[in-house]
Predict the structure.
Amino acid sequence: MELLAPAGSWEALLAAVNNGADAVYLGGPRFSARQGAPNFDRPRMEQAVRYAHGHGCKVYVTVNTLIGNQKFSAGLDYLFELASLGADAVIVQDMGLLHAARSLLPSLPIHASTQMTIHNQAGAAFLNAHGVDRIVLARELSASEIKTIHDEVPGVQLEVFVHGALCFSYSGQCLMSSLIGGRSGNRGRCAQPCRLPYHLYRDGRPADSVDRGQFWLSPADLCLIDYLPTLAAAGVTALKIEGRMRRPEYVAVVTNAYREVLDHLQEEPGYMPAREIKERLLGIFNRRFTTGYVAANDDHLMSIESPKNRGVLVGRVEEQDKSLLTRIRLEAAVRLGDGLAIWTSPQQIQGVLLREMKVGGVKVTEAHTGQVMEIKLDGPAFPSNPVFKTHDESLLGEARQSISSQPAPRIPVDAEVTLAPGRRMQLVLQTQSHRVTADTRQVLQPAEKQPLTEAVLRQKIGRLGDSPFVLRDLKVTGEECDLTVPFSDINDVRRRAAALLQAALQPENPHPTSREEFRWSRDAFLLRTPSSPRRASRTQLAAAVSTLEMAAQALSNGADLVYLNINGLGSHQRLDQKRLSRFIAGLGSDAERIVPMMPRIHKLGDKFDYHAQVGDGFTRVMVSSWADLSWAVDKAFLIHTDYNMNVFNSYTLRFLADQGAECICLSPELTYKQLTEFGGLSQAELLVHGELPLMQSQYCLIGQTRAPGIPTCSLPCWSGDYSLQDKHGYVFPLETDSDCRQYVFNSRALCLMEDLDRILALQPASIRIEAIRPGTERLGSIVRLYREAIDQIATGGRPELERYQDQLAEISGVGFTKGHYYRGVL
């Protein structure tokens, strides 16, 4: 398996390559999902590719943000530059960009970002069919689910995260940072609201414990170093270390640890990582480690006590006197320069840098296991408080040395020298995959003093210090006679052969066309119109709901279409097939207005078949993942696509239209100005009202409120209304579905009633009220107000939109937001 390490900076690149990474992933100053990292401009990118390739390491470049229409052409030019520089692959999230890259740069390998939320074999097969070479799978998969994808889609490489930070939400399905902070995770600017404290409420009353912690959305850090054989057996191609925002020392330590274990497994398949290796991983950074979902759902998935680095437990407080002199009994060694954290409570963590410490009243530079260390603190500590080492100066020092003073691992080469009188000496250099030949400039002559013995040739040819190679084996062939050439000629042929071999390691330009040819093809691609554009006579009003009762309300109050969520969101029970059939039968001709919504997530381990639930009783279906698009096409449905498919430009919209989608809901992160740049929205749907889910998680935090020691969930979500409240007092409702997945809803409802005339002027195919969170008893009134306003505008009237908005505020009972309609996102 390939070991893939992050390189957020030049120093991190050196750390990765020098510590044994097989490949690195890095980003440029634009289009990268880690815009806060130093990243690589063009000259540095070229240098990085040459350095990595020269040491047998591949380079994958992240172009994994959503790209608007105005920057789409520049994004394509950037891909051409990366192909020209010899990048081994690009990592992409935006489907429009992915399709364009496959069309315009057919030889450039494409890896699908984890932001595309590929979590089953149908999604993997869809992307593979559209030219994706590798898929970075969703982190929420078990080993058995990964193996099923591998077995059923053997043509695609599978990459999984094995170490580092986790997201609470499925990647690509999170709008929390975007909608509450204006910094989009889909655009590389996540502000990490999941690492903030929240109070948990049930039915309006506190349901959390201060002693337990309040970081309800903060996962622990992933560590799968014990599961590498399991991942290999599942068919995993690449092991990915998270951390482009991490410092180089972190990259060095983690890469080195996984490299060591992988190398041991080559020699000893049953090898288990030594304790020292795990201690190094804990020592460099951890929020406590979890195995995530690979083995099974881990009860220790979250780190709700604190989102900060825990380090390694090194002791406990014994006592503290009035002067704050604190005695700590050590369970591991500490040294001057180390940083400690004393946990007096989950909310009170006291940090100290060891500049002075005593043992038995005597100053020491190091204290050992079993000793009692005396240090001065700035605040109170209490007996039994745990003490963690969060900064290990010795570990960091070793990491820095691997970056700055240690050369990168050399590539072993074998040499073959051929000697024959009156002919030039021939030198062959060969790696596992490449072979080059070079001849001396002068012919071999009889030696008068120093013949070319094997020892002499090994010394001369072994001087590969300025190259990434190291001589392994030398073979001398030819007639047994004393021959020689000037040593300067041997040095010259060695340098030329090494240069040829190094050039051979650099991949050929994957796009052989000229820049002018590429631009011509690019412009032709950008100008192409969608196939079979939809021409609606008027903009339709749609409502997305989760119960049959809400569907009936929406229909009777003027909704043209009703999207019916079938996964039991809020009710925790999927729609009964017989009840659904009776409801549809009772609608008569209006049955065509009901559109079942496929769930965003449908894992292989789920026991319910949503495709069977839809059956043949509907003419339309809403698709919410790439996994269901081919199924919907095969079934000849009229296809709608949901906004979580992150359509951020007209080229993704065009791709979906070409696949057969007739109505495509655009990303709620788009501004009004960006909507005007689509050049027509006749196939687009726009969100105008409702409570939007900010996160969808495989983990149910409500289920984890059970008392300690109770092994199974007692379904508390069935008997209470849960929410999270942030430090500003904003309340975020929580819901679960019948698959026990968690949804975090926005504290404010979207409402664009005041701007309805401007929205309708764009002539979208549909505008949509989002009401999938049950309990919206007044949905009928909301739909009716939008119906009235739409009809008045359509007949040339000028409705009092502000008055309508005031009525909506009274009905809804929550604050309103216009989302990104004007403010946009970073």
Summary: DSSP finds 23 helices and 42 strands in the chain. The longest strand covers residues 469-478. The chain has a mean pLDDT of 91. The two ends are 36 Å apart (CA to CA).
